[in-house]
Amino acid sequence: MTTDQPRSLPLDGVRVLSQAIVWAGPFGSMILADLGAEVIEIESIRHMSPTRGSYRQMPPELMDGQTGAIYLNRDGSEGFWNRNSGFNFAKRGHQSVTVDLGSDDGRELFYGLIREADVFIENNAADVVDNLGISWEALSAINPRLIMVRFPGFGISGPYEHFKGFGATMESVIGHTMLRGYRDSDPSQTPAIYHGDPNAGAHVATAVQIALIARERTGEGQLIEMSQAEAVIHHTSYDLIDYQMNGRSNAHWGNRHPSMAPYGVFRCAGDDRWLALAVPSDEAFARLCDVMGQPELASDERFAGAAARYGHQDELEPIIEAWTGQHGDRDLMHRLQAAGIPAAEVVHQAEMFDDPHLLARDFFIEVDHPDAGVRRHPAPMARFERMPLTPVRGPAPTLGQHNEDVLMGILGISRERYEELERDQVIGTVYTEDADR
Amino acid sequence: MGPLEGIRILDLTQAIAGPYATKLLSDHGADVVKIEHPDRGDVSRRMGPFPDDVPHRDRSGMFLELNTSKRSVTLNLKTATGRDILGRLAQQADLVIESFRPGVIEGLGLGSGRLEELNPRAALVSVSNFGQFGPYRDFEVDDMLAYAMGGVLSITAEWGREPLKIATYAPFFLAGGVVAAFTLGALRGSQTSGAGERVDISLHDILATSMDRGGTNLAAYEYSGSLYFQRQESARSTALPMGVYPATDGYVHVICAPMWWDRFCNMIGRPDLIEDEHLAPNLLNVDYAPEIDAVFYPWLLERTKQEIMEAGQAQGLPVSAINTTADVANDPHLAARDFFHDIEMPGGGAVGLPGFPFRMHGTPGEMRPAPALGEHTVEVLTERLGYSKQDVAVLAQRGVV
Q1: Hey, are the CB atoms on A257 and B168 less than 8 Å from each other?
Q2: Does the beta carbon of A384 lie under 8 angstroms from any beta carbon of chain B?
Q3: Three-state SS at B203
Q4: Distance from CA of B373 to the nearest CA of A (A)
Q5: pTM, whole model, 2 decimals?
């Protein structure tokens, strides 16, 4: 359960303003909040946060389909934006303030918050900060100690600067889609993976902390820019370097490895059950053959030795799959692991809530959210012994939940002024009827 | 030089995730002393790729990529002297990071209790496949297997087909970025409290949580009983183009939400369709998809993937070329941003490595070549521990370094 009791955390005293949106942004702000930073989500009642929802009125077709799965009980009624599972998972321990940056009043409030902040992170499209008057030049003039991280899809210079990019866009442009296709298919059968999102978020959390250390020495903040595409290019470095060194433009690896064989995902007994297998040595292969009850395979000239196995994978794979197909994936994992062979069940996510290893590690924590109730979410991704990161500081905020705390508490505006801002719809806790994305 | 100058990190990680995390620190100026086995070195020295496919421990692409700006010290930790030297290096470190099998660090004399005696302020970050405890702690896995057990591989599949892994080593690069963030948290926490820190990081936990489809999907399931991302027969849930389409020279990826119908029509030069009485009211109905494809395909098949990307992006549509590795290495945007970073390889030649994943405008980092095996053994032992060159020569004869 969550608690508000005071305790020390690594990023105590670091105040972060966040316009960190789907899904790169939330992964980064979650790490910072889990480490103890005070993260204030800068929202607006006139523009929907895409992390909360894309439509002011949720179309019923979407609630019945994929989109609906994000919301509590697929309930698209008023206030659905406070019951978005992804937002509530990642924005735990954050505060929410609504200031309309499109209005002069809202911008002034934001400038006030910038004066009191250490960090501002944002992954709006590359032109947004200039249009809103919240560019690095403007904000660093207000607070020279500010650390600002801008991380649009393709960075803040170059011919693709203003390109729109989601996860799938990014992985196409940086070559990941082409690399990971099925061996017998064109890329139309290659499902998107959105790997660039969490990667960008992790790098934002890293960059912020490096800049905080730098600021202790220099006394000054700085601008950090990240192209999400560039950050995730490292994930394909094996193939990129192979191209640089040897001129090979690899593609459609399927489930094969550059040097190990057998290697891949093999069908098991049951519906949609699979075993992932990686055989790193001749010794491991001999043990695999023993477990399969076919020890003669280890000395078969097609498979004796790494190079021979690698060259005869097309023949070896069906032999292995004929065997795995007779057995359960989890059973095989345990038998092969007991024999020292790297093997893993392909775990289905719905089953992870009962996974013995995850349960033993308290992987899931319960968070009590005012509008969504007590829900299980993955815990912070590191176990700190001296400054435990669990329980997390609190649930995700409802829209504008901390307007009073932040605007009256941090900025010290009067009750009268606060009510005026509410009347003028500069701040609020419900999206305006005509709110857009 | 760099923002982390003066921070001393004793690096006992190898392979992918740990070294990627410490690379982010060394490229930004931290003094990362990498301890390697005197004969074998880091396993990534054997991963390749190698120039002309000739294996060489100092010319392995993965090692060169993951160990920029670090110093390499060889140390035989099976010898008492080797462990003693390790302890003395730990005494001077701000942070120790390791990726041994759980339990090994205790045997090396840096486990709980012992490091506190040597250096009470130091943080110890342990990175392992499944964490320091739990029933799967000692399982043997690589990046694909950890990804499989983290749940995300189960949905990276075309309908009815086998799960499809992501790029070689990519899961552990992702985990390495997360390790870096929490390692910096441990550094800050231990320095403010003065009481050290012990951190247990499981790469499996990270992959199960990560927001490619891990944590997001688990959260959706908890809220609605359905996963958000599932295997799908088609990525398409509306009439609008979504997914992979052909170009004259390859493929493009297209995302078009219903609210972008006007952008789509403008992209293909058919503004007349924006208010079309037949199509415009039915954009959420997937049955109308073939009619939209019928106007889209002829336009696509007259253009290259780069032209299609530029036409779509000019309208604000997230359209992308599905680039090959060769395309990426020659991409005009990456070139304009000077992304690739040429470094010299030991033994001659240069290789263009992926550059900084983020750019610090005030205190930029500096990427120096990865070290040859043991390149800095003499330098570090003389500078840090007061050995003479002759002392180190004796240690080498005794098989310690």
Answers
A1: yes
A2: yes
A3: helix
A4: 20
A5: 0.97
Residue B64 is which amino acid? L
In chain A, residues with a C-beta closer than 8 Å to the C-beta of B210 are 27, 198
Residue A394 in contact with residue A9, Cβ under 8 Å? Answer: no
List per-block mean pLDDT (blocks of 10 residues) for chain A, which spans 437 residues. 68 97 95 98 96 93 91 97 98 97 95 98 92 96 98 94 87 96 92 92 98 97 97 97 96 96 98 97 98 98 97 98 98 98 98 97 97 98 97 97 97 97 96 91
Alpha-carbon distance A430 to nearest alpha carbon in chain B (angstroms): 22
Is A219 an interface residue toward B (CB < 8 Å)? no
Residue with tokens 């959420």: B284
User: Measured between CB atoms, does A121 come within 8 Å of chain B?
Assistant: no
The complex's ipTM?
0.97
